[in-house]
Design goal:
Blueprint: H1 19-60, H2 63-81, H3 85-89, H4 93-115, E1 118-120, E2 133-139, E3 149-154, E4 157-159, E5 162-165, E6 167-172
Parallel strand pairs: 2-6
Antiparallel strand pairs: 1-4, 3-6, 4-5
Helix pairs in contact: 2-4
Amino acid sequence: MAENDNDMLPEDMPPEAGPGEAEALRAEVAALKDRALRALAEAENTRKRAEREKADISQYAVTSFARALLPVADNLKRALDAVPAEKRAAMDDGARAILEGVEATERELQAVLARHGVKLIEAAGAKFDPHLHHAVAEVPAPGQDPGTVVNVVQSGYTIGERLLRPAMVTVAKAGMGSPRGDGAAEPGARIDTKV
């Protein structure tokens, strides 16, 4: 037999095969080889796709549960933020112990979320990113560049490479060229209306 099936010798052909039939058989062999290679490639692509889907499922399986826990994290943070430093110093031992317990609970909840791929979006002072932040207001912010996150109203989170919940933020307002920083244009200043 020849080394390559496409290079079949006449003695390898069935005795009744003529020159036209030999060419047809070679074409059929080539077509079958092509189909086999395509089937192998499709099987390999299916295997890779299944592996990617399995990895995504394991990484993002806790998405709905994590999303349901975020209001708990928000409320713990609000409870801690409601007690200013001067009141903490004046607390009796019992109240301080309760506050420390709430702090420990909040830290543990954040650690559990982080172990499952849920990460807090660090938004304060960052440049506004519409893929991570949801602006609820523009506020005057002297000394801040326009478009900088001034205040985080509600923390945002990612899970893996996906956004779980955007951070609700206030953003520094553009001064519109006013040296006063109040957003008002100078009297007689020209405003570009083509933008």
